[in-house]
Protein: Orotidine 5'-phosphate decarboxylase
Organism: Baileyella intestinalis
Amino acid sequence: MREYNDIMIALDFPGAEEALGFLDNLDTGDDKPFVKIGMELFYSEGPDIVREVKKRGYSVFLDLKLHDIPNTVGNAMKVLAGFGVDMVNVHAAGGIKMMEAAVRGLEEGWKASGRSGKRPYIIAVTQLTSTDQETMNKEILIPGRVESAVAEYARNAKAAGLDGVVCSPLEAQMIHGVAGADFLTVTPGIRLPGDSKGDQKRVTTPEDARNYGSDYMVIGRSITKADDPSEAYRRCR
């Protein structure tokens, strides 16, 4: 099922110089990692950083978390499809109609770009791994347990035709149970033993994430901020 490496390195850098310098110094042998380009780097450098990283042979998850009315998200996805990335995402909180529009826009944009092969994966954010039970109930005003909300968002994402969700590794097994074994679970909130959790709340180690059934582990600071990022990457593997 997995077409790519199952570790994604989050390129959470302020600009192209830092991100590309990191990749230039990263020694992973023949094991070319999947990388995530998020809002900080994309808003700093725009589409050029995506094109440059793709040119270097990396698979790219463009993590922009689109969340707006269906028409706007659909049109935005047409644009993102032209970048040739391998995975994109939306917020599941936007609802089924918004997610359906995102899938249509992505497919239309992919065809219009003239690229061959399968369109990029499209996944939906369920609840951020920085969200705990109290925050969800008292600030976001979603009642019940985090796991219940995540499961319902996953069902909606599958109904809308998406390929998977972003979730905590703690919820990966549950999501496969409600949405199927082939429904992708992309899991941030991964830390090596002894690393600080930072602003994350629902976290695990890479080993535990694999045991919980995570398909793609998004790992940032445990690799990018390590004294020896190449060794940290090998340790995660």
Summary: Residues 6-236 form a domain with the TIM Barrel fold (CATH 3.20.20.70). The chain is about 45% helix and 15% strand. The beta strands are 7-10, 34-37, 60-66, 87-91, 121-125, 164-166, 184-187, 216-219.
